[in-house]
Amino acid sequence: MFRRFVENFDESSDEFLVKLKRQIAEGSDEAIVLAAELLYLNVMPLSPATIGVNRKFEILGSVLSWVSFEVQVPEELAGAASPGYMKGGQAFLNYRWAQFAFLIRLTQLMVKLPLAERESALRDPWRFRDLAESVLTDYDGKSRARAQFHVLLFLLFPDVFAPVSVERNKRLIRDAFADRLVEPTGDLDRDIHAIRQQLEAEHGGRFSFYDEPWRSRWEPPPPPRSQKGWLVRGANVDGVNAIPQWLAGGFCSVSFSDIEQLPAGASRQQVKDAVAAGLPDAKQGRKDVAAGQLWRFLSGFQPGDLIATVDGDAVYVGTITGDAYHDDSAGRGLARRRSVEWNPSPVSRQSLPEEAQAKLKTAMTIGELTSVIAALATNAGLEEQLTDEVLAQDETRDLIVPALTQAFADDLLMPLGWLQETADLLAAKRQMILYGPPGTGKTYLATKLGEALAGPDRTRLVQFHPSYGYEDFIEGFRPRLGENGMIGFDLVPGPFKNAVEAAEKEPDRPYVLVIDEINRANLAKVFGELYFLLEYRNHEITLQYSPDEPFKLPKNVFVIGTMNTVDRSVALIDAAMRRRFVFRALAPDRLPVDGLLRRWLERERLSVLPALLLEEVNRRLSDPDRAVGPSYLMTPNVATRRGLELIWTAEILPLLEDQLYGKLHDIEAEFGLPVLLDALGHTLP
Fold it and tell me: From start to end of 304-417, where are the E strands?
């Protein structure tokens, strides 16, 4: 087995059992049984919250099925595998291959020892530990099986080694109880063993470092959790309005009567398993939504959070005061409960800000209201219970859009009036497209305008192209290579969703997303459900990859797109998209671009000849959509003969050749630099 699994490491992305079968299924029956025994050591300590009992035996049964005769897990071992004692994290599960390889290396080492030395090592915990530690290193020099190493020590010598699988936790325990050490050794396990003996003598028997009052002494406190706001619907619970009972009894509840009773603080996996068992015939999408809703009620809600419910026009607001509990005295539909201190005086729904009213329209049984709960609590007279974090997220506050300054306009060499009008249009519509021919400074202006309104840290630019899609812009699944070589998929937010999440944290400050060449992508494909939100910002929808998380477009997210008109692409934008954007033209013959090159040359104290050349080119083109913008010549290189000639031959003439393809036989004869200079009566210095 050492040769098949350890020496011939399988780096493919297949699942662990698939690779294991490929490596050892053709080996001897004895080797396969040994593999099952080692895997038993790996999965047995895991609690049901990590791997259920049935799954443990599925793993062992799969391996034992490769044996030519029937093998059963002995009854006493099967019983020991049921409870488990440790919660293995994702890293523990991902590193099963490394843990298995470690167990193989250790087994090989023990078998090679003379019998007397092997028996001595199995009696001496410290000798065994040293032997095990000597084979911890993986094929690439890393030690990924340390958790399995600590687990094995406890399983073999529970009176010596603590049931702690995370080495960092061992250090925290040793440091927290260092006052109990008479003579510290510097050996982590020996020091903890001495601490355990001292504490057992003091308290009269066995104890666990994970029980109180010991746990709180060594375990770092969890980071403080921000207050949240929640909506729970109760006006129609299995056909009955439960809100009067909520108000009278001081609680709220959710039904999910087909799903078994679950404890407060249940893990997501526990909830998913219970939903799968209770709704076996439901589609997966419905199961995911139900699991997300129920988990929020059991584990997402926290005492101190604010809560609201709606009964017609009446909105009741209260404070959650306790953990989830079960009380079926009023029937199963009201059995899953949370204690709530309700304000008995309702708030009129119509009196709330528009953003809050929109949030209350969610069809979900449970919805998050953190971004508007401040407005509800204030109207209900509960403003004293609001934390600074919730107040900072209040999206009902007025949006602060700064006025543009004359200094900003002078820097851009553009009229302040035109710029401020553009900013006002953007603030009113929230979506704008700057369009015009190449070189008119669309991207530069969009970025500068965004930075002036939102600041550089709140302005982002994304480039659209023909292969750009919904998964690139909003969110999509991306492959991830795990530490064990297996391929997984993560739901990764795109630049749009990242901008929304950032904007939600500062609802009174604009966030600007600049989309360069927006017309190069298939807009219907890229924007998807956002078509709706671009027009109805206060409404919530669900994204196709996040069906259990309502999504809305905050009022402080501004979108500025840029388009080239040289290919008549503006006309190709469908009516639905055009209706959602305000359009601003940047044309060489109109403000603010008209005369821009001349103003720049004068500011830089350069000859105005490049401006005269550009004006002559655009006069001969006589087509505003094909005109050449000034940015090609807004460079210090135009100050020299060589620099101007290079710009003309390498940038302007190729652009004109592309635009006039099939219409003009000899570009040089019409637009060559010598021809234009002669027409203007100028020569280059």
Answer: 306-311, 314-326, 336-342, 347-348, 366-368
Mean pLDDT score, 438-457: 95
Q: Is 326 left (phi over 0), alpha (psi -120 to 50) or beta?
A: beta
- For residue 347, give Cα distances in angstroms to 310, 393, 401: 9, 21, 30
347: buried, middle or exposed (CB in 10 Å: 19+, 13-18, 0-12)?
Answer: buried
Whether the CA torsion 459, 423, 571, 529 is positive or negative: it is: positive
Q: Cβ(498)–Cβ(476) under 8 Å?
A: no
Q: Are 254 and 336 in contact (CB under 8 A)?
A: yes
Tokens, residue 241: 């309005």
Assess whether the previous peptide bond of 592 is cis (omega < 30° from 0).
yes
DSSP annotation string for 15-52: -HHHHHHHHHTTS-HHHHHHHHHHHHHHHTTB-TTTS-
186: left (phi over 0), alpha (psi -120 to 50) or beta: left
Residue 7: predicted pLDDT: 64
Q: Locate all alpha helices (DSSP H) within 316-392, ordered by sequence.
A: 354-359, 373-379, 388-392
Is the model's pLDDT at 572 over the cut of 60?
A: no
Give the H/E segment covering residue 386.
Answer: none
Q: What is the pLDDT of residue 84?
A: 73
3-state secondary structure of 632: helix
Q: Tokens for 353?
A: 């800000």
Longest CA–CA separation in the chain, Å: 107
Is the model's pLDDT at 381 over the cut of 70? yes
Report the C-alpha dihedral over residues 653, 659, 660, 661, rounded to 10 degrees. Answer: 100
| pLDDT (0 to 100) of residue 464 | 94
Quick one: tokens of 358?
């929109």
% of the chain beyond a pLDDT of 90 = 53
Q: What share of the chain is helix, strand, coil (3-state, %, to 5)?
A: 50, 15, 35
**3-state SS assignment for residue 683:** coil
| Beta strand extents in 224-289 (DSSP E only) | 229-232, 251-254
DSSP 3-state of 590: coil
Residue 90 has pLDDT above 70, yes or no: no
Tell me if residue 157 falls in helix, strand or coil: coil
pTM: 0.62
